[in-house]
Structures are given as C-alpha cells and as structure tokens.
Amino acid sequence: MNDVRVAAAQVGYEQKAYWRNPMAAIFTFAFPIIFLLVVGGSAGPSRVPGYTLRYDQYVVVAMLAFGLIAACYTNLAMVVCTRRDSGVLKRMRGTPIAVGSYIAGLIGSVLIVVAILTVIVVSLGLAFYDLHFPYHPFAVVVTLLVGIVTFCALGLAVTVLVPNADAAPAIINGLYFPVVFISGVFYPLAQGSVLARIANWFPIFHMIRALVSGFEGGPGSGLRPGDLAVMAVWAAAALVFSARRFRWEPRRPKA
Amino acid sequence: MAPESDDTRSPGAGSPVPGPGTEVPGPRPAVEREDAELAIRVVGLTKSYGQFVALRGIDLEVRRGEVLALLGPNGAGKTTAVEILEGYRDRDSGEVSVLGHDPARRERSLRARVGMVLQECAVDPYLTVVEALTQRAGLYDAPRGIDEVIGLVGLEVKAGSRIKTLSGGQQRRLDLGLALIGDPELIFLDEPTTGFDPSARREAWDVVRDLCAEGRTVVLTTHYMDEAQALADSVVVLAGGRVVATGSPDTLGGRDQGMSTVRFAPPAGVTLADLPLPDGVEARLRAGFVEFAVPEPTTALHALTRWALDRGEGLSGLAVERPSLEDVYLSLTGDGATPGEGP
Fold first, then answer.
1. Does the domain spanning B31-253 belong to CATH 3.30.428.10?
2. Best mutation site among A91, A93, A109, A164 for testing chain B: the one with the most B CBs within 10 Å?
3. In which band, very low, low, confident or very high, does the pLDDT at B19 lie, cut at 50, 70 and 90?
4. In this structure, is residue A255 part of a structural domain?
5. For A111, how many CA atoms within 13 A lie in the half-sphere containing its CB?
6. What is the pLDDT of residues A100-121, one digit of tens each?
7. Containing structural domain, residue A209
C-alpha cells in the first residue's frame, strides 16, 4: 500500500526530471516529429506494398514506434546509466524504498511520455496525411503496451552491457541503430527481402507491423498475436537477463 | 527503538550473543536481539576482491550515541568496512551486527533507521532542493521536517533551486540533509567534508555534534586528523586491512604516554654541555633550537627554568609538545604497519 503511494510519487518526480532535461525530450519528440513532417511530407501518394496504408501514413505509424523506442529503450537506458554512474542508484538502494516502487516510477513516467507522443503523432497524421482514426484502437493500445514493456525491458537489459556513462550513448545507440534501419522504420521493407528476413528476428519490425494492422481497416480485431509473441519473447529474455545481471553501482575498483 | 526484552536476560552478561540457554522458544527470529549498549558490533570481518585482501579480520564496536572515526590511508579498507556495514557489500566471513540486524540481509526495517553519506555526491540534478528532500522524506514513516533539515545544513537560500545549479559544497550539504531526512538513529559519513572550505567544514562539524547531542550514533571515515580530533569519541585506525590501533583521540597509540618534546633557543654562548639536563637525556641542536624528549617534562623544565632565571636570562621560544594525533597516525600507518604480508 505504502509502496504504491511511493511509486505514484516517484512517477511525479520522474516526470519533473524528464521534462527538465531537454535532451530526453528532443530525442523522444523532436526527432520523430521532424522525420514525420519531412519524410511523410515528401512522399507521393504511392501505397506501401503489402499494406493498405499510403507511404506517408505508414511513416506516421513508424514514427510512433520510433518515438516509443526512444522513450522506453534509449531514454530509460541513458537515465539508468547516468544515475548508476553518479551514484544516485546506489544511494536510493540505501533508503527503505522498494526496488519495485523505484522501477514502477520510471516505467510509469515512460507510459505518460508515450501517451503524449501517441496523441501528438496520430493527431499530425489525422491532420496532414488523411490517416484514418485507428479502425482497431484496442489493437493499437495493446501493441503499444506490449511495446512499452518490451523496450523498457531491453533498455534495462542494455545497461548491463554499459561499463560507464561515457560509453553509454555509443553502446545503447550502436546496438539499436542497425536494427532500426533494417526494420522498416524509415521506409517499408520489401516482403521476403534479405533485410526483411533479418528484421524478422527483432522486435521493431513486428511492433510496426502490429501497429499498422490497428490502423488498417481489415476484418477482425486487428490484433496480430504472432507479432506480439515475438515482442513478448524479447521482453521475457530481457527481463530475465536484467534480473540476473542488473548493476546498481558504478563499476569501479573499491578498497 | 526501545531495547524491548533486554531486561529479561541476565544483567551484565556481557555477551550480546544469546546463549543456547536463553534462546526464545519458537521459530528463530529474523532479527537478533538489539544490544542496549552497542550500535555496531563486528568480529573477525574479512573481505577479499579476487586476489586483493581488503579486510584481514577486523573487530569493531561502536557504542550508541558516540562518534567513531575510522582512519587509515587509501586502500586500508575503510570504505569496504563501511560499505559492509551499510549493506552494500557482502562479507567473506565474520560477524556483523548493526542495530541488531545483519546488514547483508538488506532489511528495509534497518535501512529505515540508518542514514548515509557516500563518497560520491549522488542527487538527481534536475530536481530542486525541496523536491529532492520531499521525495526522500516520502520513503520514511516519520521523517524530519523539510524546512528543519534545510536549516540544519544551511541551504535556505537555495531551497527552490535546481540541484545542478548548486556548488559542489552545497550539493555535499544537500547530500548530508538527505541522509538526515529520515531521522536516522545511525549515520554513516564517508569522508563527509572532503572538498569543503574551512568554514563549511566547521559548520559540518557543528551538524555532527548536534546529531551526537541528540543521541544518534555516527560512524565517519576521514583523512583529516583535525576532524577526528574535533569530533570523535573513539578512533579506529585501519592499515592494510587490519585494525592497528583503537582508542580515544587523546590516548590513541599511547599518545598520552608518549614522549614530550621540549624545545627552546639557548642563550648566547651556551653549549649543550652547559645545560642542566636530566640524566640519560640527550639533547640536540636543530635550526638554532635545543630539542630533547622526556617521558614527563615537569622536572626537566623546573631545572631548566631555574637555571635560566639564575643566569638572569630567558629561554626564548620555549615550547613543550606532545605528539599530535597526526604524528601518532603516521607512525601507526607508516612502513612498519602497512601490508607487507603479515602472519
């Protein structure tokens, strides 16, 4: 009970810290929105092969995914690495706070960020690119939630591989940029291409495909259980890895 | 806080470890009985990092309400010892009891009663001073007042400022405030005044004295001998992972029984042989001053000053010096005491 109250308060402090740090907001909001306006705005009325969406509409959905990854994976990992290096995490661990309350505060704050991002990006799509309001809003919300869990888990997991805060941007982005480029974030993948087959192993492609499905007017619920399952496997693996190897303290010789 | 059932045991039993005969029936309690006298008890504590032996079996007792200073050169094991007591590190062997808990279990009920300032100054730069203290206060059942703590560490003018705009010394003071917000019984301060200017150090010392006056227990590590001299009730010197001396700052290492050095400038034309020195005492000339060491200076001084008065002269620059805490510390932690693979 008390832990829940503490977690709720933590969400508030995490939100304050988030919005006061311009770098985090730029990566999460400015990049996807600029890409959306530039890439989407320069696209012709062509359709994306394999989808019913137009290319510019597809970019709206892809940028939603891109922003979500920035908020959950990149930003969360950077925050954790910075706080670990400066000793904030170690210090928190010396207080009576429950680990769950602290992590819940971080993830709750990410949820708010993704909700705001979703509203902005989808609104831009509705206003400028004739995007239809999702035909399957439930499928979109479920996919976003699975995406948040997956990429937060991956964000926590990647901190295990980061030795110190100086190395954090290189490792965090270095692992993720190649996957972004082959996963159809900036341009749709030709089905059956070599890249598509590689991207098939990673969660980003599946999140985009599941999100697009919610925006398309097909029959059924719009849910794509197969795509969600791939994301869930990544999430589970990342959570197990983090639970075993997560470090609260900087890696530094102590005497 | 009340040492619940301590009076049910035989008084003056000495050993805080419950004997087999006095064990309470039923399931073994997770928390061992709290000692009424001691806040911390450590016996035979060892810790190695791979090949490096950081602690070679140290014993330590900290009485409730006292300030204990842990001294020692870099690498002596101070931080390792403190971090084991704080629950950050597991020990290899030995008994450790902190307020009746084994800190390695990392129980929340213990963490709620302990405050700490670590060597790294660790505060989120984007929150304000008041926000950081309010956040931390929310983690405790009965925290101290935010304004009270801000006043205690002298950050009134910065209360509404973001932490990243604070100077290093101000951040360190906030760090201390964060350690105190939970109203802890026991406070660990790991080199709390490193980087402070002299007046900030004096203010921090006053804070520590106030804590002590309130009956709290303080364990501090420091490199500054004057800090230990000013604050500590007892001092433990670590070197090479061993306790090489314990005592009060005034008696450490036989400081109170050490030799006193008498020094003065001899009157013109006087040689060492002319001086009325006690038998067996050898004086020497150094930088124009006569110096000699005696266990107890009263007699020697009496003879010396009478001799000078009889001659109608003074002894300019006359001084009697006892070994400073720093002298004792340096002799304890010098070549003789450092690792060199003991037995």
1. no
2. A91
3. very low
4. no
5. 14
6. 999 999 999 999 999 999 999 9
7. 2-245
